[in-house]
Amino acid sequence: MARNIRVPAKAKQETSGAGFALNGVRSFLIALPALCTALAWELAAWQWPSVARMVSQPTEIARGIVDVFATGEIWPHFQTTLTEMVVGYALGAITGVVLGVLFGRVKLLGEIFNPYITVFNGIPKVALAPVFVIWFGIGVMSKIAIIFTMVFFVVFINTFGGLRSVNEEYVNIVRIMGASTWQVAREVFLPATLPFIIVGLRAGIPFSVIGAVVGEFIASTNGLGYYINYHQGTYDTTAIFVGVTILALLVVVLDWLLSRVERRLLKWHPEVEAKSVGA
Amino acid sequence: MKPIIDLVNVSKTYRSKGKSVLALRDVNLAVEAGSFTTLIGPSGCGKSTLLKILAGVALPYEGQMRYKDRDIKAINTDIGFVTQDSNLFPWLTLQQNVELALKIRGIPKHKRAGLVQQFIDTMHLTGFEEHYPFELSGGMQKRGSIIRTLIYDPDIILMDEPFGPLDAQTRMLLQDELLRVWDKNKKTILFVTHDLTEAIALSDQVVLFTGRPGTVKRVFDVPLSRPRNVFEILSEKGFAEIYHEIWQYFKNEIKI
């Protein structure tokens, strides 16, 4: 019997010495464009002072980052923005999952609210930022509200879409096996929807930064967005790039954390595309 | 002997795009316990719908369906359903897929393991326990999908064109394995196919359906002896006659 069985190759991690060397070469090739750009940027800034004024230079930015952390100057801004992001993101994500599940499973709710969701999703959420500032003041609350709105939609739409796409045959199969409603949820809906939810959660991370920065640009007394905006007033491009770099690193770290979770949960799953959502 | 399944004037109407479509019309059919029945008919004649009605996942229907003298008006968990696609859950390994029904039925973990291994071994899937479905070939997925149904020992097994998408060789091997498993425990099997050779090779009775709305056109007893050799079924004594007999009716339904 075994003669006609095709033995599938399990995806293997390269662990041999040759593989390691190849990985090293690969990492180097990936880093190469960044290194070239940084080098060209640095040289150009040395050569032409106007370039240094407009876009600063990599060594200055690196020194700036070390400085702002060493002096502690950046900490209050960092903390403010991180707080806004974490709170806004968490609230948006939880609400998105809960309502996504509700609307995805309760057919009537889904049918009634689907057009509304399409319309609200069409609104560029950043355009609502000024209203949130009026409603919630210039403190962290208004930023949390902006982030909440942005993250909510991307998580909601992916969760909703995920539940809607669950194969009904899977549901029938476990019901015939004797599954209770709770068992159907745990054995089918949860694992089948998880990849979509995680795509939504990952897509929500950059939105939480955008929301925080936009909010802080409009009105604030603290935060990395405020820091960047403030230094625009003093033509300090180095400080602006310091702020931008810290924001970028923040997103990379958060996304990396979530991707670790994803890999643990979804080792069985091929890639899923995020549903497109307007910012 | 009393039939395990007894259908009396079962009809099913679907609503589709605002119109009602009659899928099945007055189906009358009795199935003996422990028999192997194949349902054959043109595409879209409602054979699959009938299986869904039997499993209780295509409610409501008109008419009467009795299972062991009970009216079936809800999901029937005495049934095992092997769907057309393998439908192994992609997030579970082969072993977890096979184990699922036992888990749902609350059988404790230490009792499951041995049974799962036993079924995996009988279907020649040993060594692939930890593989996810995407790492298995179509034939292996199909074997997995059959044993995850057999494992909870349902009284009736419904199979909806299970071997349809497989290549001819794998198909014959699986037919052979299915017959050997069935010979051992003699569960009642209802097997939908549109392949007349397959229908005859496997079953005790072939139920021929008309085109939509489907109803039973005629039931044929298959006189071939058991155990059968599916690899040589074409040269089996009596095969040509029964094939020819059924074909005379079947060809009218598919408008040749």
Short description:
The complex is a heterodimer of chains A (279) and B (256). In chain A, 78% of the residues lie in helices and 0% in strands.
Name some characteristics of this structure.
heterodimer; A: 279 residues; mainly alpha; MetI-like fold; globular; disordered N terminus; B: 256 residues; alpha/beta; Rossmann fold; six-stranded mixed beta sheet; four-stranded antiparallel beta sheet; 7 helices; 10 strands
For the report, how would you describe the main beta sheet of chain A? none
**CATH domain class of chain A:** Mainly Alpha
Portion in beta strands of chain B: 25-35%
Q: Look at the structure and name the CATH superfamily of the largest domain in chain B.
A: P-loop containing nucleotide triphosphate hydrolases
Provide the fold topology.
The complex is a heterodimer of chains A (279) and B (256).
Chain A (H helix, E strand, L loop, with lengths): L16 H31 L1 H7 L2 H14 L3 H31 L1 H16 L6 H8 L3 H25 L3 H9 L4 H38 L5 H10 L3 H29 L14
Helix pairs in contact in A: 1-2, 3-11, 4-5, 4-7, 4-9, 4-10, 6-7, 7-9, 8-9, 9-10, 9-11, 10-11
Chain B lengths: L4 E12 L2 E13 L4 E5 L6 H9 L6 E6 L2 E2 L7 E4 L11 H11 L4 H14 L15 H13 L5 E5 L7 H18 L2 E6 L2 H7 L2 E5 L6 E6 L17 H15 L3
Parallel strand pairs in B: 3-8, 3-9, 6-7, 7-8
Antiparallel strand pairs in B: 1-2, 1-4, 4-5, 9-10
Helix pairs in contact in B: 2-3, 2-4, 6-7
